[in-house]
Amino acid sequence: MEELAYAAVIVIVATVAMVVWRREHDVRRAIQLEKEKIEVEERRMFGFLHGLGESLQEDSSPARIHRYIVDGVAEVIGADAGILYLLDADADQLVPVCQSSQTAPVLPLPEEILPIEDPEEAESHYRSYLRLSALDSKDQLLWRVIEDMEPVHVENLGDYEGFGDDPEAYHDGVSLLASPLIYGNKRVGVLAMTQHDGATFSENDREVFQSVAEQSAFALGSAIIHVEAAEKRRMEQELTQASEIQQVLLPRASPELSDYQVAAGYRAARLVSGDYYDYVQVDGDRYGVAIGDVCGKGIAASLIMAMCRSNLRGRAPENLSAASVLHSVNHSIFPDIRGDMFVSLLYLILERGSKEITLARAGHEPPLLYRKASNEIELVETPGMAAGVDEGPVFKRSVKDYRLTMEPGDILLLYTDGLIESESSDGTEFGVERLAETVVENKDACAEELVAAIVAKIGEFSKGMTQIDDITLIAIEKR
Asked: Which of 94, 174, 178, 337 could bridge across to 157 with cysteines, CB 3.0–4.6 Å?
């Protein structure tokens, strides 16, 4: 009996030892498998990061980066499918930009797809729905991801609010990982990965996913900056070309009139300007002089001014009425000018051998007239509304021809508001009075010297300040 008892004890001890050894072996084996899986994921992650860096160096086009991120991250964590959304901050929407070859069912099925019986057709419609659907509802799962700026892990989308309502239970067994993409405290978008058929993401998968999502956000941010920089360079090149064209449109020489000397100064605040001046030959003995200013700056203002120039040059020849020319300009631009824009214009006609000047003013700054005989400045304030405000009748009634005479030594100064509104460091404007004083101080200078003196005075007055508006001036001296 004792021998049997000893034998039973030995068997029991051996069995227990075998069970313990087996359990320890299984645990070690599971740890080894998990370790190998982690090592594989780490190698994939490093490979992904290396490839991401190469993609940025070789081809940083958005489409290539988007595809590499979706497919690369899915491979790293063993996901079945993925989709990438970018944030359109202006529209306040998440816009889908790339999805994997397999469908990542990150949105509930829309009602129009539910009646489709053919699974392949339904799948095709659902993929199109994902590709075309920008997300703008704060109640949607992916919107909450970017709003909270926290990653989300859903074990089974079929149990998530809004996803389990379809009769086909399409989202049952689908696991979701989603992470906000943040670059420099700026929200870029959302990256989402899914697994089907009841598979789920491990804790290590989630940690690796978060790491690669952070690097993806950096790559996307860098690509966006690269695209924006390229777009900025392109815009600058186009603006430079527009500026060069605009410079070509300005007069190359002053009118050839023996008893008048005309000189001009022009300085744009930006590459393109809304200021304009021109000399147009009316006939053999007369020249037209025009100056104008569009309410606004940049490309839009320069285009409006080009329209004014074209129309004025078309109507000025053989037309001895300055007002008639401005009437035509107003009629031409009114249908095309925006409601918040207008153009101030002044046009006058000089005649060889005559002291009389015909002038019309459409809302422009009143010119200064220096009288040599009295050594005083007159402000030529004729009536007239700006062009582009009224279609015709009111404009024609307000803008009329005005005639003035100039004696030898008199100077007529035309200018845009950018000159008198130039500011000093303490915020003081240059003003009409200071301009008039400068004219009187340089009363013995010729037209060219007077323009140079005024430009120098403005530069000294506004030293250290950024020019905020275009500056144009024309000096007309009667000989």
From this structure: 174
Contacts of 36 (CB under 8 A, 6+ apart): none
One-letter amino acid identity for 437?
E
Strand order in the sheet with 411-415: 260-267, 471-478, 411-415, 368-371, 376-379
Continuous segment of H or E residues that includes residue 178:
strand 175-183
Q: Any idea what DSSP says for residue 357?
A: E
How far is residue 475's CA from residue 452's CA, in Å, rounded to a whole number? 10
Structure tokens at 347: 């046009």
The pair of three-digit structure tokens given for residue 467, joined into one six-digit string? 């020019």
Rounded to an integer, what distance in angstroms lies between the CA atom of residue 417 and that of residue 344?
A: 10
Nearest 5°: the CA angle 412, 413, 417 is 150
25 vs 41: CA distance, rounded Å: 24
Look at the block and give the residue holding tokens 């095709």: 124
Which secondary structure element, helix H or strand E, spans residue 74, and what is its range? helix 62-77
* Per-residue H/E/C for 280-338: EECCCCEEEEEEEEECCCHHHHHHHHHHHHHHHHHHCCCCCCHHHHHHHHHHHHCCCCC
How many C-beta neighbours within 10 Å does residue 51 have?
12
For strands 93-99 and 152-154, give the pairing.
unpaired
Distance CA 87, CA 79 (A): 23
> For 53-88, what is each residue's pLDDT tens digit?
555 555 567 888 898 899 989 988 889 999 999 999
